[in-house]
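#struct-pred

JT: dropping the chains for the assembly here, can someone run the whole complex?
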Amino acid sequence: MIFESVSTGGCRSYLVGCEESCAAVLVDPELSQIDRYIALSARHGLRFHYLIDTHTHADHFSATRELAHRLEVPVVMHRSSPAPFVDLRLEGGELLVVGRLRLQSLHTPGHTPDSMCLWVEDRLFTGDTLLIGATGRTDLPGGDAEALYETLFHGVLKLDPALKVFPAHEYKGRSHSTIGQELAELKTSIENHRTELIVLDVRERDAYEAGHISGAMHLPRGQLELRVNEDLKDPTRRILVCCEFGRISTLATATLRAMGFQRAVALDGGMKAWREAGNAVTDGREPQ
Ligand SMILES: [Fe+2]
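RK: done, full complex below.
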């Protein structure tokens, strides 16, 4: 396999070619690099067969349309792409034949609904679905954090841990990662976020000691204003406020937000809903 990676600022595009047949594809080509792609293909004696966008790019200018026009090569995207100029629309699981190479598409919605990854031999082109040490944004048009979670934890991250990850963005100059490294990194960051969250139980002591969320801090509603500066020193922390039914915690959350704890939220339905959902509770006091 002939392989070239082209960096432009934080964007990455890839040239993948078959040595035997001299057929090649471009993955996520960028408009400012057109001459470079053409020079690379000439240097290796390759001819482009497909121009692939892993998704609708909101943050860089794709060269697929311009190159398709210049070289008369078809543009490939996922079936759900809204772009009118796409010539070949892939379903998840479909193969793109490039000489002796087989590029398999995986539909990976989340960053955008039309995101796909492409798998060839020991590499996975992840577009903006999975970056090195990060995931693609889900706050741009079409982004869906739940879909991305599903895509990653029930799809991409279950692939062979040795598979090399080549994303469409990389800002620190690393060439690639692996599925195994990304899985480990994501697990660590989820664990860290968990410990960042403060669970604040605002019920009276007897209710708290009868059963609370493990690790919850106890601060009764009646003492909130008095003790808040002492007990909650960092107003940037995420705080989950809980009471028995979810009503007092809603008021306590409003108080906390008014005091500058903008990331405070109330536990919907309170501890009653928590227990009814079958979640675990701890009794007694928490170690200080
Ligand atoms: Fe993107």
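JT: nice. The first strand starts at residue 2 and ends at 8. The chain is about 25% helix and 25% strand.
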